[in-house]
Write a structure and sequence with these properties.
Layout (H helix, E strand, L loop, with lengths): L11 H9 L24 H4 L21 E5 L13 H18 L4 E5 L8 H9 L1
Helix pairs in contact: 3-4
Length: 132
């Protein structure tokens, strides 16, 4: 991966928002997972959630500034991208905790959980369990 090959304008969310003429905000960091990352990053994505500048801890993003109608989440691929994968309980518990945080910030938003086309291990089954 490189900046040349990672273009948010070619993502599912950008293409969908463009087709629907919808405003969208993106929280993304290549390699981060729900509870386990691909690569050397220490903290998973929920650690950085609600920051305006991801690497600056004091840069809290106020969720009241933008209340989306729909939140689309595609997380989990990186958790299952290496030989050491989280247990089903670790993944589900971590994802439920993250979703609860999002629900508290955006109580009126619809939340859609998606499983990436690259399905490793129990990733999609566990995401389905989180959504129930």
């Amino acid at each position: 991966f490189s900046p040349e090959t990672e273009n948010i304008l070619h993502s599912y969310v950008s293409i969908t928002a463009e087709e629907l003429d919808a405003e969208y905000h993106v929280i993304a960091w290549s390699g981060l997972g729900v509870v386990k990352n691909a690569g050397d990053n220490i903290y998973p994505l929920p650690y950085y959630y609600n920051r305006t500048l991801a690497t600056y801890e004091q840069s809290y993003y106020n969720p009241n500034l933008f209340q989306p109608d729909l939140i689309y989440i595609m997380l989990g691929t990186n958790d299952y991208s290496s030989e050491s994968v989280p247990t089903d309980d670790e993944f589900i518990s971590g994802y439920v905790s993250f979703i609860n945080q999002i629900k508290s910030d955006y109580p009126s938003s619809i939340i859609v959980l998606a499983c990436a086309p690259i399905n490793n291990g129990n990733q999609c089954a566990n995401i389905l369990n989180v959504s129930i």
